[in-house]
């Protein structure tokens, strides 16, 4: 597939499709023709990107915050607040679950299929990291107390042997399959806030994206949580050096007093992309390593909760106003 020329100043909404309930999370299938969303009615929906035709999948008993396609696009896995992992066929005609596994105690926050399609990673509020056989659903590896607090984000490194996980306290741990002890820890503590007046711990590493070519890890979330219960906190992306863990640059977003970075991604030209949602609404934010502030800001029509990027130059955004939006960043 030829990668189109990126022009972030030409960012625009191409399509918007309405769901029956506020959306929570979204992913675009590897072929770019389908998107999947989860919503507050506990359903999973498959959408045709060009037409908005949709198929509803029922199986979770509560909200699902995490989802991931297999590399061939044939299978979708979702992780719910009910602690269940559910395997689905991504074929529009199939609506029954392939497999359901009681995987975690409480919310599942992160799910990812390995690049070779053989493994599935899951993590959640029970502070556990687990690796599953993608084809059978059997548990292969487990770190039962991987973190001190809730795990919000986790992903495989490209070799499918390394795992990176981030938690509420801003701790980012590196693991290797078959090794019990963690290998190293990176600090993203500016993403953590403790509000003693409200007796609340808030923030954390809500999302991450690694660029092996640049040797940089992006970690997104929020800071300046002066009133977390009142949704007063500003979005923040940290750019960390993978080699030594140092924060190379904090990317603050001025003028967004109510926002959280829910997902970060790398564009093909090395630009970092984040989606922010909160009481200030929804934004796509673009960053380069040359400056702390974003180089471009695109205001979305509504509060955004998630985002996914496809090499074709399309972005899917999931919104509280029940809409899945397809956004273009190509010239």
Can you offer a commentary on this structure?
The protein has 331 residues and is mainly beta. The model has no long low-confidence stretch (mean pLDDT 94). It contains no helices and 30 strands. The protein is globular and about 45 Å long. The protein starts with 11 loop residues before the first strand and ends with a strand.
Strand content is: over 45%
Mean pLDDT: 94
**Helical/strand content category:** mainly beta
Helix content: under 10%
Shape: globular
The low-pLDDT segments are none
Helical stretch tally? 0
**Strand numbers in spatial order across the main sheet:** 1-30-29-28
Evaluate the radius of gyration: 18 Å
Strand and helix order: EEEEEEEEEEEEEEEEEEEEEEEEEEEEEE
Summary, kept brief:
The protein is mostly beta strands and 331 residues long. Helix content is 0%, strand content 55%.
Spell out the key features of this protein.
four-stranded antiparallel beta sheet; 0% helix; globular
List the helices and strands and how they pair.
Elements: E1 12-18, E2 23-28, E3 34-39, E4 44-48, E5 54-57, E6 64-69, E7 75-80, E8 84-89, E9 97-102, E10 108-113, E11 119-124, E12 129-133, E13 139-143, E14 151-156, E15 162-167, E16 171-176, E17 184-187, E18 192-195, E19 200-203, E20 207-211, E21 216-227, E22 232-241, E23 247-252, E24 260-266, E25 272-278, E26 281-287, E27 296-300, E28 304-310, E29 314-319, E30 323-328
Antiparallel strand pairs: 1-30, 2-3, 3-4, 4-5, 6-7, 7-8, 8-9, 10-11, 11-12, 12-13, 14-15, 15-16, 16-17, 18-19, 20-21, 21-22, 22-23, 24-25, 25-26, 26-27, 28-29, 29-30
């Amino acid at each position: 597939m030829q990668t189109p020329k990126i022009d972030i100043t030409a960012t625009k909404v191409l399509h918007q499709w309405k769901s029956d309930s506020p959306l929570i999370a979204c992913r675009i299938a590897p072929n770019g023709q389908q998107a999947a969303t989860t919503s507050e009615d506990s359903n999973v929906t498959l959408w045709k990107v060009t037409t908005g035709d949709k198929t509803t999948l029922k199986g979770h008993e509560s909200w699902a915050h995490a989802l991931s396609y297999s590399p061939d696009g044939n299978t979708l896995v979702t992780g719910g607040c009910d602690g269940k992992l559910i395997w689905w066929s991504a074929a529009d005609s199939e609506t029954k679950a392939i497999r359901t596994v009681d995987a975690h105690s409480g919310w599942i926050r992160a799910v990812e299929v390995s690049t070779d399609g053989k493994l599935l990673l899951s993590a959640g509020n029970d502070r556990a990291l687990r690796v599953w056989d993608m084809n059978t659903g059997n548990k292969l590896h487990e770190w039962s107390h991987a973190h001190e607090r809730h795990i919000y984000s986790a992903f495989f490194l490209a070799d499918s042997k390394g795992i990176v996980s981030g938690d509420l306290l801003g701790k980012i741990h590196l693991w290797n399959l078959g090794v019990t002890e963690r290998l190293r820890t990176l600090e993203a503590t500016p993403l953590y806030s403790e509000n003693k007046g409200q007796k609340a711990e808030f923030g954390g590493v809500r999302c991450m994206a690694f660029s092996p070519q640049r040797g940089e890890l992006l970690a997104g979330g929020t800071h300046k949580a002066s009133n977390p219960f009142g949704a007063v906190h500003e979005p923040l992306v940290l750019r960390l050096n993978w080699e030594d863990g140092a924060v190379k640059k904090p990317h603050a977003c001025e003028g967004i007093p109510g926002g959280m970075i829910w997902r970060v991604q790398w564009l093909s030209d090395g630009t970092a992309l984040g989606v922010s949602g909160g009481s200030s609404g929804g934004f796509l934010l673009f960053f380069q390593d040359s400056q702390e502030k974003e180089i471009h800001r695109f205001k979305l029509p509504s509060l955004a909760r998630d985002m996914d990027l496809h090499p074709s130059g399309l972005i899917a955004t999931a919104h509280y106003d029940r809409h899945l939006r397809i956004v273009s960043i190509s010239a």
